[in-house]
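Supplementary Methods. Inverse-folding protocol.

Structures were first reduced to a C-alpha cell string of length 209. This string, shown here, constituted the complete conditioning input.
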C-alpha cells in the first residue's frame, strides 16, 4: 500500500485528545506544491510493478491540503488545541478546491487509471457550512468526487466513539455527524449505482469512557 501512495501534506489541526500527530508533525498544515506531487506521481508510474492504481493521495487527514487561517496572525496567537472542535474556527479557510485541483491533475497523467484516498477523511470538515457559498460548493463537489471516483471499495472515517461525553473529552464531533455523513454516503452510492462501504474506526477504553 505504501509503495504506491503519495503523501501530499503533513500536520493536523484536528487536535484530538488521544493523538500525537500535531505534537510531532505540527498543528499547521504544510502542503507540497502541485509540481512536487505530480513529479513524484510520474516517478511512481515508472516503477516496474505499477499497474496504474495509486493507493493513496493523502496525509494525516486526507482533506486538509492547503487549509490554514484566513488571517495567519490570529493563528500565531491562538492557544486552542483544535481548529475544528468544538466548532470549526471562523478564521479557518476550509476550501477544498486546491485538493480537487490535485486530484484532477493526477488523474489526467498518463499511466494513472485510478487514484484512491486511503487516508482517513474528516467528515466534520465536509459537513461544515461556511459563510462563503463558493467554499460550500467546493465542499459538496469534493464530497461527491471523493465518493464516486476515489474510494477503493471502502472509505475510512473515524468517529472514534458514540458517547457524546466521551467524544467531547476526545475533542471529536458529535456522533450524529457520522450518521449525517453516512446518509450522504449512502445516497450518493445509490445515485451512482455503487456498492461501497463506510468503515468507521472506534477507540475502546479511552480515559473518561
Amino acid at each position: 500500500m505504501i509503495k504506491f501512495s503519495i503523501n501530499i501534506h503533513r500536520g493536523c489541526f484536528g487536535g484530538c485528545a488521544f493523538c500525537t500527530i500535531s505534537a510531532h508533525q505540527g498543528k499547521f498544515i504544510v502542503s507540497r506544491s502541485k509540481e512536487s506531487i505530480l513529479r513524484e506521481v510520474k516517478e511512481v508510474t515508472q516503477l516496474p510493478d505499477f499497474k496504474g492504481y495509486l493507493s493513496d493521495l493523502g496525509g494525516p487527514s486526507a482533506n486538509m491540503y492547503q487549509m490554514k487561517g484566513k488571517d495567519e496572525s490570529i493563528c500565531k496567537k491562538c492557544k486552542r488545541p483544535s481548529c475544528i472542535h468544538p466548532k470549526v474556527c471562523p478564521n479557518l479557510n476550509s476550501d477544498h478546491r486546491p485538493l480537487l485541483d490535485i486530484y484532477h491533475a493526477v488523474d489526467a497523467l498518463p499511466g494513472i487509471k485510478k487514484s484512491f484516498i486511503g487516508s482517513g477523511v474528516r467528515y466534520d470538515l465536509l459537513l461544515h457550512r461556511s459563510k462563503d457559498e463558493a467554499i460550500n460548493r467546493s465542499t459538496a463537489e469534493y464530497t461527491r468526487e471523493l465518493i464516486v471516483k476515489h474510494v477503493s471499495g471502502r472509505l475510512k472515517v473515524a468517529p472514534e466513539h458514540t458517547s457524546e461525553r466521551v467524544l467531547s473529552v476526545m475533542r471529536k464531533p458529535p456522533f450524529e455527524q457520522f450518521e449525517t455523513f453516512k446518509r450522504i454516503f449512502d445516497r450518493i452510492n445509490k445515485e451512482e449505482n455503487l456498492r461501497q462501504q463506510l468503515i468507521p474506526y472506534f477507540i475502546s477504553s479511552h480515559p473518561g469512557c
